[in-house]
Amino acid sequence: KVKARCKAYREANRETHLAWLKTWRQNNKEARTALEVKRNASKKQAILPSSDLKLIKKLYEQRAEMSKKHGEEYHVDHIIPLSIGGAHHQDNMRVITAKENLEKRDKYIPELGGVWADNDLARETKKKLGIK
């Protein structure tokens, strides 16, 4: 019932809702980015039961603060990239400079540690790399 009421309101007040949404997006860039990454991780089945989404959101807020403070762009990096089977988990994420993150790309660096997801992609990658 609540969903139906909300949908009806949005349809009846389309312009007002779109204006509010635009303002929210501009004022909540970190939250938006965190939601987009969470959605992507969810599609890849990379979110673990022990993932603390509040801590992950704080990493994105920390990234924004560091970018403002240092005048340099920072990214939240998945130590083991989602694209090769890494988990969307606070212990698999860190804040690094954009330059470092773009140089790293989707490489797996065992010395950094990280957390693997419990999905087929992670199992395939670990098998290729000879990791148990």
Describe this structure in a few short sentences.
Helices cover 57% and strands 8% of the residues.
Task: Outline the fold blueprint.
Blueprint: H1 2-12, H2 14-27, H3 29-43, H4 53-70, E1 74-78, E2 93-97, H5 98-104, H6 120-129
Antiparallel strand pairs: 1-2
Helix pairs in contact: 3-4
| Oligomeric state | single chain
What about the largest sheet?
A: 2 strands, antiparallel
Number of strands: 2
Please tally the helical runs, counting DSSP H or I stretches of 4 or more residues. 6
Give the fraction of residues assigned to helices: 55-70%
Mean pLDDT: 94
What integer value in Å does the Rg equal?
18 Å
Low-confidence runs: none
State which percent range the strand residues make up.
5-15%
H-E string = HHHHEEHH
CA(first)-CA(last) distance: 48 Å
Could you give the order of strands across the largest sheet? 1-2
Based on the model shown, name its key terms.
single chain, 132 residues, mainly alpha, 6 helices, 2 strands, 57% helix
Describe what this molecule looks like in 3D.
- The protein has 132 residues and is mainly α.
- It is built from 6 helices and 2 strands, in the order ααααββαα.
- It has a two-stranded antiparallel ribbon.
- α3 packs across α4.
- The longest helix has 18 residues, at 53-70.
